[in-house]
Amino acid sequence: xxxxxxxxxxxxxxxxxxxxxxxxxxxxxxxxxxxxxxxxxxxxxxxxxxxxxxxxxxxxxxxxxxxxxxxxxxxxxxxxxxxxxxxxxxxxxxxxxxxxxxxxxxxxxxxxxxxxxxxxxxxxxxxxxxxxxxxxxxxxxxxxxxxxxxxxxxxxxxxxxxxxxxxxxxxxxxxxxxxxxxxxxxxxxxxxxxxxxxxxxxxxxxxxxxxxxxxxxxxxxxxxxxxxxxxxxxxxxxxxxxxxxxxxxxxxxx
Length: 254
Fold this sequence. Notes:
Layout: E1 2-8, E2 11-17, H1 21-41, H2 47-65, H3 77-81, H4 92-107, H5 110-114, E3 118-119, H6 131-136, E4 141-147, E5 150-154, E6 163-164, E7 170-171, E8 186-190, E9 193-194, E10 200-201, H7 209-212, E11 218-223, E12 227-228, E13 234-235, E14 241-244, E15 252-253
Parallel strand pairs: 3-4, 3-8, 8-11
Antiparallel strand pairs: 1-2, 4-5, 6-7, 9-10, 11-14, 12-13, 14-15
């Protein structure tokens, strides 16, 4: 933890954070200039009111720069969500960055480190890319394959072994027996978005939903898109979302 002493409008403060002292100084200098500029234009303005105006200015600028505008959803979130434009789906470098953050966080979770089997998936364009996770946990990873009305998981020895299945999703071959999950194993569940209690909006087929809510299994919901707000509305944020269900103790956001 780094700390610096700063002075704004004659008042001294201690600014602390994990960032470098240089970064903290840059932040404080930006705030100081904004406060002094506002008070220069409005000499009678108190320091408290000036700092509030600076906070509103920064909030406005952050919202304008965000690639996902805040959208309050109607009472039918699934129907409304599927009507949202493709422009809200992170692509290219942004998707790669969010996927990398998710892989790093997942790889450090104690429940993942202790698992004998890790059910993962080959992602589509609206899902986080987990190939980096497979490269770190090859012996533990298994991949989903649709068999009739059910989904089963099989290991792979090479990424190239995955082939498009009936839904166009990359699937493993049936060259071994399907994975039998134990209590300590973890299932990674893709989704377009998740609610704070594990509510999931997927792609509409429903294969993963029973796995995500199974009482005897640990699952982690993964998305590079929004997470539902506690009020039941969906709010878009410039961050990936990672949600652990009730069996994994609590939710996380990156």
